[in-house]
Amino acid sequence: MTTPFERGEMRMSSLTKRFAAVMLCSALSWTGWAGSSSAAASPDQPLTPKVEWSSTYGHSFARSTGNAVAATSDGGYVAVGDIDEVRSSDSEAVQKGYVVKVDENGNQQWEQTVWIDEEDSYVYDFSLKEVIPTQDGGYFVGGSATDRSSRPHNVPVLAKLDDQGNLEWVNHYRVSGYVDSVVETPDHGFVVTGYNINPSAAAWAYLMKVDEHGNEVWIKQHHFSDVEYPMGDFQYFNDLLITPDGGILAVGQMEEFISEQHPDASLIVKLDSEGEIEWTRKQTLPGSGISANAVQLAPDGTYLVGGSKRLDDKMTVFVLNIATNGEVLWEKSFTVDEGSFALGELASTSDGFALLGQYTTGNYPNYHRQFQVYQLDAAGEFTGSLRLEVPGLLGSGTGTMTDDGGFMLSGKVTENNKQRMLLVKLSGQTEEPSAEVKEIRFANPELTLQIGERKPSVVQAVYADGNAADITGTATLTSLNPEIASVDPDGFVTGLSVGTTEIVAEFGGYTTTLPVTVSETPGQTAGRFYLDSEDYSLEIDSELDVLALFTDDTGHTSIVNGETRFTIGNPDIAQVDERGYLIGIKPGLTSVTATYGEHTFTASVLVVKPYIPPGQLDQQPEQPPVTESDIESEAPELPGQ
Question: Where is this region: Disordered (predicted)?
């Protein structure tokens, strides 16, 4: 089974044989953005990073690989890949998904295999490609397996584990494709996507949502070519994130293998919470293999998108900053003079962001692979390059930023003639201060917030020469009364109950405090409060989550369900809990009202009887006909009334 990086290597070898020309595109496509530029610094003079530790895993199996790693709340890491386990009955190797949890120093705490252990199962060759910590403290993993019920094809595989690695559930699904990106939704469900291919030599980009138990909620497939069924046209998403309004931002590519009739293009697509498209942006460059590979939410609420393209036999890496409506604010790029770069992760850093991936030179079968980190400032300008040589490196997985400013990387390596999962911890590259620290201080003298509200705090080091530097990420932060207000390692303070307390910051032997006051009722806040819909519809005995949203006067949108009070107009028709979950009780029309401080918003709620497919009508008990008296109706207040 090929990884995204291996697929990239195979694609790049064919790109040099294709004609490269820039074509003027439609209004929703681009050949260059206003404000785009190329960075002056050279990425081809990399530094060698300091390795804090490096370790391999899966030694009890015949083979193990590493495809992804994520940081955990306890300071450790969780990684996924696959293993080969030799059966004692027939000495045949069985490929299973593999999950391993390690502490901050790389010491293994537990490991788990993921597969479907059923005698009549027709799904084999499990491999995990992505992992994320979940809101309940566990872990969600995604990957693929081979379905051999008919003609063999790959299908998504998803699994949920608790915090100790115990498997809660594992499922495979009916759509063809891989899983390369997973996100958790506000309702504790999950949305996944990935590379897609099928026997018809064409594939549409897919998204799938499952609930917290792994049950399929919906599958959406989207097509971005002008021709409905083009041969050799593959379209897929590489990465996802949940947007502040509860929707989805997906990035990916269109790839043409047979002709130039449907040229290569990168995709940036905004979808609602149901997977329906709101807007699309395409950058079309025939024969370039252009792809949007990774997306990240910027600190100001906009989006950062990283990708690559190849023209004139040279790799160009680009980063876009786009607004929430899809407008491109800026584009920055740099050229890799030799070799190619496969982007696996776009990570935020203290002073900008980093592109983590794999740098490859040579030709098949003599590829030379290295870990690669490109560093950029907040404006997208190239600032540095780190490249790590690992003997026997077979491939790089995704990586992540660490709390101490370093990087955690995953991959697979040859060790004693066997393939092994590899994790590498790199230290952060920091400069010594130009002068000795004189004092530390909070940027603001005090902090006021309401219960449930979350605000940032900034700790600064003041040097003898008068300069100040942000040290929030490296200072030790504690709350003197965590029942009133809590503080996380990134400096975000959350109001929990009415009262006053202090946040204490410690750094290099210096200490400073920040007075915090938490009040009960927020006043009228400048901005717009609204729900994610003006009209809700659900069936009897079904649930539907309502998202309460607040857009402040700067344009930043936040989900505020935790600070919102929900009430229902007629509780005989529907009910709503404190989290905003609607429950259908009986057929009828009512309304739900949300109150956030002094803001209110009302939406209609329609409850209907469950739909019964025609083929199942004879399986249902006979129902009396519906009359007007069966439906209670209440005229809901319209938004703004």
Answer: 614-641
Residues listed for the chain? 641
Ramachandran category for residue 608: left, alpha or beta (phi over 0 → left; psi -120 to 50 → alpha) = beta
The single-letter DSSP state of residue 612 is: -
Q: Which whole-number Å values give the CA distances from 282 to 145, 269, 345, 437, in the listed order?
A: 31, 9, 21, 49
In this structure, the strands spanning 202-203 and 233-242 are parallel
Q: Any idea what DSSP says for residue 15?
A: H
CATH 2.60.40.1930 is right for the domain spanning 4-23+46-426? no
User: Is this model's pTM higher than 0.85 or not?
Assistant: no
Averaged in consecutive runs of 10 residues, what is the pLDDT profile of the chain (641 residues)? 38 28 28 38 72 93 96 96 86 90 96 83 90 97 89 89 97 90 96 77 86 96 73 82 95 74 86 96 89 93 94 90 95 87 89 92 78 92 88 91 92 90 82 67 86 79 74 85 87 86 92 91 65 82 84 70 87 88 87 85 81 40 40 37 36
Give the C-alpha separation, 350 to 106, whole Å: 24
Instruction: Please give the torsion angle defined by the CA atoms of residues 185, 186, 189 and 191, in that order, rounded to the nearest 10 degrees.
Output: -10
CATH of domain 527-633: 2.60.40.1080
Same fold, 4-23+46-426 and 527-633: no
